[in-house]
Design a protein that fits this description.
Number of strands: 0
Largest sheet: none
Helix content: 55-70%
Order of helices and strands: HHHHHHHHHH
Shape: globular
Oligomer: single chain
Distance between the termini: 28 Å
Radius of gyration: 17 Å
Number of helices: 10
């Protein structure tokens, strides 16, 4: 969140970029975010589940994985830490160069901000360190994916390795279902994660 706050974008430009992403997705026939969200909205328990995943599979999951690496695989912690900050640093550059409004701001398309409607937690919490126009790339998905890969790489337990696969997948669904990211935002997050993982693999 602190990293996101350092690249507050121009709202007009951010909305222009969001429309560009929607246009690209339509051309690629992957503009399915609204259909997914509308299906989720029909089931209140799914909305609460997606909100919970979106919230708790971000900072809590990332911090838990980094703490686990520090305690259980201390020799690998510097690599994971540096990879983590590399991902964040690349994302910061993109936030500066390509500020993007999230789908929940695109009311003309019918998107719903499920976090604000159904959860006590609100996007403006910690507003001093919050940037509303940092949708591309998605760090909610990117950092969850990076933490999941680190957990899979450094753990020998099947349960933990399964979590390393499952949680990023659930977060991918949650960022779309809650109206916080487009599919291309997630793909952008995945791309910068490859840089962080590549660094860790290179140094391992």
């Amino acid at each position: 969140m602190f990293i996101r706050s350092k690249a507050n974008g121009n709202p007009e430009v951010a909305f222009l970029h969001a429309h560009q992403i929607i246009s690209i997705e339509k051309k690629l026939h992957i503009f399915w975010e609204l259909q997914l969200q509308n299906w989720i909205l029909k089931k209140a328990w799914l909305v609460h589940l997606m909100n919970g995943i979106y919230t708790f599979c971000y900072h809590p999951f990332i911090l838990a994985v980094m703490m686990w690496i520090y305690i259980q695989r201390e020799e690998e912690f510097p690599l994971a830490r540096n990879g983590f900050f590399l991902v964040g640093g690349i994302a910061l550059i993109f936030f500066w160069l390509y500020p993007t409004a999230p789908p929940r701001f695109m009311e003309e398309y019918g998107f719903t901000d499920t976090i604000s409607l159904f959860l006590v937690y609100h996007h403006s919490a910690g507003f001093r360190f919050y940037n509303s126009y940092a949708a591309m790339p998605s760090l909610h998905f990117g950092w969850a994916l990076f933490a999941g890969i680190m957990l899979f790489m450094f753990s020998r337990k099947r349960t933990l390795r399964t979590l390393g696969i499952l949680i990023p997948f659930l977060q991918f669904v949650a960022i779309i279902a809650t109206g916080n990211h487009f599919f291309l935002d997630a793909f952008g997050g995945m791309a910068i994660v490859l840089c962080g993982v590549g660094y860790v693999k290179l140094k391992t």
